[in-house]
Amino acid sequence: MCVNKKNFDLNKNTVSLCFKITNFFLKHNIMNVLENLKYTNDHEWIRINGDNAYVGITDFAQSELGDVVFVEVNTVGETLNKEEALGTIEAVKTVSDVFMPLSGEILEFNENIESDPSLINKDPYGEGWIVKIKMQNTAELEELLTASQYKELIGV
After folding, report:
1. Model's pTM, two decimal places?
2. pLDDT digits (tens, 9 = 90+) for 61-87
């Protein structure tokens, strides 16, 4: 545990242990990065399915955010450019924008995360997808990161 349950004080030994645990997980590739996806520098992933694609946040991003409590996407039916905000994710202690990995029309919002936003924490690459999009410019895919490039970005 990274926090003393009795008084929630962090001490030097606890901080050191937390740092060692975090480094262990990163060094031993326990942070999940899937080879069949493309990634952004802002920690979104994209899975291509014909002319459409699914978009979500990475395992790294969800672990940094903490417990996700609410997801808002008011852009269904809109066409957005690459790197435009498509919605927001609210965690216990912060709110973060979710960005388009490439230009396209927002076709669908994952209604399952509306009723259970913790799916983003539990299964960020599966049931925790956020939106389905229709891609407009597939050339933009070349600008995204591969799994190995994303691992380098997050230090794995």
Report:
1. 0.80
2. 999 999 999 999 999 999 999 999 999
C-alpha to C-alpha distance for 128 and 121, rounded to whole angstroms: 7
The residue among 43, 60, 52, 45 whose CA lies nearest residue 106 is 52
User: How distant is the alpha carbon of residue 65 from its chain centre?
Assistant: 9
pLDDT of residue 156: 86
Q: Can you give the chain as a three-state secondary structure string?
A: CCCCCCCCCCCHHHHHHHHHHHHHHHHCCCCCCCCCCEECCCCEEEEEECCEEEEEECHHHHHHHCCEEEEECCCCCCEECCCCEEEEEEECCCEEEEECCCCEEEEEECHHHHHCCCHHHHCCCCCCCCEEEEECCHHHHHHCECHHHHHHHHCC
| Residues in Cβ contact with 28 at an 8 Å cutoff, skipping those fewer than 6 apart | none
Question: pLDDT per residue over 102-142, tens digit each?
Answer: 999 999 999 999 999 999 999 999 999 999 999 999 999 99
- Angstrom distance (rounded) from CA 46 to CA 7: 42
9-36 in b/e form (b: 16+ CB < 10 A) is eeeeeeeeeeeeeeeeeeeeeebebeee
HSE, CB side, 13 Å, CA atoms: give it for residue 131.
Answer: 28
